Structure formats: C-alpha cells, structure tokens
Protein: Transcriptional regulator, LacI family
Amino acid sequence: MKDVAARAGVGLKTVSRVVNEEPGVTPDTAARVQAAIDALGFRRNDSARLLRTRRTASVGLVLEDLADPFYAALSRAVEDVARSHGALLFTGSSAEDPRREQELVLAFCARRVDGLVVVPAGEDHRYLLPEIAAGVATVFVDRPAGRLDADVVLTDNAGGTREGVAHLIAHGHRRIGFIGDQPGIHTAGERLRGYREAMAAAGLAVRPEWYAMGPTTPERVEAALDAMLNGTEPVTALFAGNNRVTVTAVRVLAARPDPVALVGFDDFELADVLDPAITVVAQDAPGIGRVAAQQLFRRLDGIAAEEATRTELPVRLIERGSGEIPPAR
Amino acid sequence: MKDVAARAGVGLKTVSRVVNEEPGVTPDTAARVQAAIDALGFRRNDSARLLRTRRTASVGLVLEDLADPFYAALSRAVEDVARSHGALLFTGSSAEDPRREQELVLAFCARRVDGLVVVPAGEDHRYLLPEIAAGVATVFVDRPAGRLDADVVLTDNAGGTREGVAHLIAHGHRRIGFIGDQPGIHTAGERLRGYREAMAAAGLAVRPEWYAMGPTTPERVEAALDAMLNGTEPVTALFAGNNRVTVTAVRVLAARPDPVALVGFDDFELADVLDPAITVVAQDAPGIGRVAAQQLFRRLDGIAAEEATRTELPVRLIERGSGEIPPAR
DNA sequence: CAAGAGATGGACAACGTTGTCACGAACAGG
DNA sequence: CCTGTTCGTGACAACGTTGTCCATCTCTTG
Structure:
C-alpha cells in the first residue's frame, strides 16, 4: 500500500480510501491510484485489515466428518448463509474425538473467528466459556453442548424415532430391533429413548438383545443385526439409528432370503430405488445448517435475545415400502 | 498480552517467549507469566501473529459443491493433510460459476492463505497469476487450470470411460448412449472423448442422438435418456458421465420394463445393493484430495521442482452386473 | 475582497503480535 | 581483580491496514 501511495504520489490514507471506495476522493486521484494498484498488482491484506477493524468476517464450523453426506449438506447450508453475510468459512472434522474438537475450536478462536457452529463431540464444553465471554458467538448443532448454556439447533430425534417405530408396529410388528450409534452420542441416546417410548406406548416389552449401541462400522452393525435375527426371539423388523447403520442393514438384509421390515433414521440417496424402497425418518440437514447459521448471525448482529435458544426441527416420515413388510410369522 | 505483561511484572517480549515456549526464560518467571495468562484468560491472537510472521498456516479449498459426495470426500482428504501440516482450511463452493470461483479465490488470497486447492469452474485463471507470483501455492484438482501453467491432479477420465464403454461393447452392445455434464466442463469433455474413442476402436459409428451433454438435473437427464431409448435406433446400453447422471439413470431405468445395461462414472454408495448392482468406473476422491494437498505442501516447503506437475490418477472398473445385461434384441 | 464552508489529502497512532538488538547480571578464566 | 562470555530480559520497530484529526485548497457568498 505504501508502494502504491508512492507511485501514485499520494498519501497512504488516500490509497486506503480508494480501495474501500470511501467518499472524498477526486475521480482524478482515484484513477491515478487505481492505475498504480493495477501496475503493482496490489491486493489489500485482509488479515491486517481485520486486525485493525477487529472483525474477521469468518466463522468456524466443527463437525464430525465432512465426508458424511448429512454433514456435507449441513456444511453447504452454513456456507451459503455465511457467504450471504460476507463471511468466509473455516471447516474442520473432529472425527468424534473431543480432544480434536477442542483443538479445532481453540484454533478457530485464536484466529478470532466471529462465530462458531459446532457439532459437539465431547461431554464438556466449559472450555468455551472464556471464548464466549470474549464475544465469540457459538451455536451448537445436532447435539446440545455439554455443561454449557448456549444456542442449540436439534432435530426431534426421539419423536422421529417414535414415529418410525410406531409405523412398524402399525404394520403388525411386535419384535422390533434397534441399532444405534455409540451410547455417549446425544442423538443416539435420544433415538434409543424414542424407540423405548414407542414400544412402551404399544405395550410391547423390549428384550435386551433387541437393541445394540456402538460404533457404526459395517462389521459391528452386521454382527448386531445377525444376533437379533438369529436369537431365540428373533426380531421381525429393524429400526436403524442413522444413515450409516441403515446402509449396512440394507446390505445385510438384501443377502437374506426372507424380507425384514426396515425403517431408518436419516434419508439417503437412492433409498427410493432400492427393492424394497426404504422408509426413512428424514431430517432436514440443510435446514439445520441454515437455521444454526442464521441464529449465529443474529447473535452477531446483537439482535438476539440474551438467553440461549433451543430450536428443534421436525422430521418427516417418508413411507416407501420397507416399513410395510409384514412380520415373517 | 500487554495486560499479562503488566500483571506478571515482566516485559511484553517475555510473555511472547512464554506463549511460544521459546527458550531463555527462568522457570520462575515463566510460572509467573503463566499465572497471569490463566488469570486473565489470555489467548494469543493468531491473526496478529500471522501478520507479523507472514505465514497464515491456512489453505483455501474451492470446489463446486461441498454437498456433493465426491467433493465431500475430497475435502475431507485435503483437510486431513492440512491438519497434519498444522494448517487450517477455508472452504467455499463455486456452484460451477466462474465469477463466484474468482470471488472466493481472491477472498482467500486477500486473507493471505499459504496455498489454494481449486476445482476450476471457469475457463481462464490468469487472474491468479499475480497471486501465484506473490507466492500463493496453487494446485488445481479434477480439471486443469485455464490458460495457466500450474500443478494439477486429475483422474484418467478418457481412459476410464474407454474402459467402461469397452466393457459394454464386450457384452454385445453396439448402440451405446452417453449422457454427460455440461460440455464446457473439462471432465465432461474428456469422458465424451473416451466414449468416442472406445466406439471408434470397436469400429462402431456414433449417432448424434446417442449422446447428450448438459446440466445434470434429473429433468434434463431423464429427457435425454428417454430420447435415446425411444428413437428409431434406440440404444441398448448407457454410459453415465458422472454420479449425478448415474443416479437419475438408475431411477429412470428402474421404471422401465425391459432392463438396459448401465455403466456409470464415479462410484456411489449402495451401488452394490441395487438390482441390478451398478457397474462403475470408480475414481479415488480421497486420493485426489490427498495427492493435491501433498503437492501443495511440497511447494510450500520449497522442495517441489519449479515446473508445474501433472498427476493423473488411475480409475478402477468395478464390475457389478449392470454392465453385463445383454442387448434387448 | 474577506470569510466561511466544503472538499480533498496526509500524518500519525493504533490493532496484537514477533524479530532484532542492546543491556545488565552472573559467572568463569587468567 | 579485571575481562570476556553467557544468560535472562526488555525496549523498540515492524507487519499492513484503518480511524482520527488536522491542514490545505477551492469555491461560494455577503
């Protein structure tokens, strides 16, 4: 900038005025400055600018895995809202590791992001207290923050699962299995709760071998499913606790001679083309991201109420057939 | 930092030394400084630090759509490599709009990212010349840069398509259709070329109504496919030019009474569970991202050769059955 | 023609760090 | 006891911007 000023024969501040299109510069000088800028290939250094203005126009997004379709869609929505507010987006995957989540969050804070959208991996987010006090707007998505009062955007996990399980019950099933993610994960727990509630509401007992919580690796899911289907009281239908589980379940069930009813949490591509087409409880990934990001910017604009908000987005049961398969016996 | 220094009764620089774990500080003073840091909840401002050190430890990733599974996987790989080099990742989706791509790239450059990984949307990337001259390492992925000599990581689009089309020919097909993305997109053009080459190599003529290039919206793909299947010389097999097209094709073909052979470019989840299971030419999305990011950091370390490199990753034909359906007549 | 108003431009400090250098104290060697 | 070396420390400038404030210059107006 100094070079540009020298070349154009003007002061530093005048260059700054031209670059920022501030008023009070003769068209003539502006042209001279612009020419110098072009000649020197000058580009304003936004880091320095932002250091001075104390707004970084960037937000950080921490989620579990950028490659998961659910989070990919969520990211894209957050990105779009950020862009519409003139902010850039840092992204990072925690891989469900609290330490990594904290590392990422603190790295973003050290860069002085204006705000954070976090899919919490850990149990305790009090490490964020000083940051929030320092003015970093923070919105949690998909799961509530641990031991921290902050904005959160969730889906109706328990309700959605209840609806999905009730759908299976309505089609005659009495022995229904549930395979979920690791029990420590909030969404997994909520969905398990929904399953229990739906069963209880129908007066159905739940045998311990009918539900299994754990990592969503294909091996684990396959083993759990096999155990449910081959026990003394085999299940006739399965509720899959998330899209990873559903996908593996579809594979395993396709290899069996007799059809097994299936409803999954989370929609996924091609669910409608499978045979049978898969009935799912769909959550609105872009919607969650959008609402969260909007809440973030509302906070940044200082418009938001002081208290933490809790938004719960509805889910939608999409009936495609796999939930209507009758019990084998 | 000034406050910390005052509270600990030391100089500014000593605090800096403690924060950066530089040698030459008595354990005693270090402890005093640390106490002040904790008391004040001080966190170093990395923006300022990076302004001073002139390295931002961040890279920018511009791609078409973060929500596309292919790019999501690629992003994750880039992120992992960046993390292992201690860098944070800015991401942005261009939505296939050259203006938006340029906006994003320049915004990243204004933040003085150390490097860029770009899936080019436009035809002309000379606007990047000054940035590259200024030292921003740049690697293009998936498609080569327009009118610019830079590192690029590609997949073997033409070769992969040749192989896929040859697979259909080997199973008796003579009239084979091709539906690709917009003709301006490099990968789309290369795949079309592969299709033509495979047909020519087998001595088969290609009728103009057998191939269609354009947006990958379901409507367009469906219309194109209908036209090919209902013409006077209907195709008996289809090569789908990318995962969006394949997905729509699967839907359309599933609704037809007579089976049509299909091979798609890009693997996708559940391709193996469909009936018939879909044969695909799989590219290695994480591999592309990883190789590109590694090349980027090689440049940043100054280890890389001066000349631009061009890496072409192989593809893999995964035979699952849909390519082996014989011609209807 | 003087004076006030408005337009235009520049000097300077500040944002929060780090690199450079110099200073003083402690210590070892002659 | 003097000199030279090492170690710990802090003052200061610099990174590249922008906000504040003041100086100048050119009009208009009484």
Q: What stands out?
A: The longest strand of chain B covers residues 58-63.
